[in-house]
Amino acid sequence: MSRICLDHQHMGVPHHLTKQFYVVLSVFFILTDAMARAQVNVEPNTAVLNEGDPTELLCRYAHHSITYCRIEIPGEPKVFNLSPDWNKTPGFTYFGKGLQNGECGVNIQRVKAINNGQVKCNLGVEGEELSGTIDLVVALRPKQPAVELMTKADSEGYFSEGVTFQARCIVPDGRPAGNITWFLDNEPANKPLGQMEFVASHPANTGLELATTIQSIKWNLGPEDNGRKLICRSHHQTDRESLPPQEGSYTILVRYAPIHKEDTTVYGLYLEQTVKVNMTIRANPAPVIEWTIDGEVVRQGEQKGRFSVFEPEYLGQDMYNVTMIIAGLTLEDTTKTYILRASNALGTTDYNVHLSSSATPPSSGLEIGAIVGIVVAVAVLILIVLLVLFARATGRWCFGVISQVFCM
């Protein structure tokens, strides 16, 4: 027992109070030591295993040898009275360094689902019985995850662009509880997630206490979300290479107005030829098209003079090709203002289009000829510098400076 020395005279404490303090302190240490000696240590405190896994569970009394050891395992009809030479029940053997060393444990060759629960060991020590417990969790694979919508779609199953979409994943009846990860088309979702919740569940007529995992996800929908698959993937103790994580999924459908684009210039059109002007538009649902040419409107399926406008052609992935044909392109046509208007139930978008008879758009960088000229100029400059240096070194050339001639 540790000793604590106190100078009660210097502390100004009355002598009779100091004696009482020592008595209380001594009793405290005695009780603490007794509690430590009465404690049964277990390894591990909790064992989480799959059905069929082996395990070793150990109870230890560090201060004295033990005279007997009884271990109770959930689901087993017998109480095991273990010792190093005990070998009466197939699949169960003694584990430890011997009763004389205060150790008694059990080696379970294959854990069964019915073994889930609290393993209890009772040790005989100096005429009394001490107990310890180990939580043995035999994992049960949860049921298939389900994605549940918290934001409702319209009658056709669509959401509008900009809507705050919210859903939750439910992974029911696992032991222990499963974990959840979210994906969009097999890429990490990287969207705001709610706190993962673990709720106790009791499937009917099973007598089991299991756990259901729930987590929510939400974000504002954009055009890029249309047709993407939202995947909720559960991860669990029972996952194996031959038994991969389970998934639940939901395909998101989004309607949106035609997407805006910067002004477009169509190049390579030949004067006096019938030309085709093509534009690609992304929208859902399909857009309705009209062109305004210097104030005159030509709708899809119409022809006015030399201008014909066709219905949009679906290219897939919400992309539509819009075509206008001009018969006998004139120089004046390349100076006109063209406005393409695309509309659907979600909105209207205007696109400014320019026509050009140039074969290619002007380069934003240096032309090839300019680059070659720069290279030649640099080469000539280097050659001149080399000649001057050579002349200075050999003294072959003379240079006039302020009406005097100096030879170098």
UniProtKB/TrEMBL annotation:
<keyword id="KW-0677">Repeat</keyword>
<dbReference type="GO" id="GO:0016020">
    <property type="term" value="C:membrane"/>
</dbReference>
<keyword id="KW-0472">Membrane</keyword>
<keyword id="KW-1133">Transmembrane helix</keyword>
<dbReference type="GO" id="GO:0005912">
    <property type="term" value="C:adherens junction"/>
</dbReference>
<dbReference type="InterPro" id="IPR051427">
    <property type="entry name" value="Nectin/Nectin-like"/>
</dbReference>
<keyword id="KW-0812">Transmembrane</keyword>
<dbReference type="InterPro" id="IPR036179">
    <property type="entry name" value="Ig-like_dom_sf"/>
</dbReference>
<keyword id="KW-0130">Cell adhesion</keyword>
<dbReference type="InterPro" id="IPR007110">
    <property type="entry name" value="Ig-like_dom"/>
</dbReference>
<dbReference type="Pfam" id="PF07679">
    <property type="entry name" value="I-set"/>
</dbReference>
<dbReference type="InterPro" id="IPR013162">
    <property type="entry name" value="CD80_C2-set"/>
</dbReference>
<protein>
    <recommendedName>
        <fullName>Ig-like domain-containing protein</fullName>
    </recommendedName>
</protein>
<keyword id="KW-1015">Disulfide bond</keyword>
<dbReference type="InterPro" id="IPR013783">
    <property type="entry name" value="Ig-like_fold"/>
</dbReference>
<feature type="domain" description="Ig-like">
    <location>
        <begin position="145"/>
        <end position="251"/>
    </location>
</feature>
<dbReference type="GO" id="GO:0007157">
    <property type="term" value="P:heterophilic cell-cell adhesion via plasma membrane cell adhesion molecules"/>
</dbReference>
<keyword id="KW-0325">Glycoprotein</keyword>
<dbReference type="Pfam" id="PF08205">
    <property type="entry name" value="C2-set_2"/>
</dbReference>
<dbReference type="InterPro" id="IPR013098">
    <property type="entry name" value="Ig_I-set"/>
</dbReference>
<feature type="signal peptide">
    <location>
        <begin position="1"/>
        <end position="36"/>
    </location>
</feature>
<dbReference type="GO" id="GO:0007156">
    <property type="term" value="P:homophilic cell adhesion via plasma membrane adhesion molecules"/>
</dbReference>
<keyword id="KW-0732">Signal</keyword>
<feature type="transmembrane region" description="Helical">
    <location>
        <begin position="368"/>
        <end position="390"/>
    </location>
</feature>
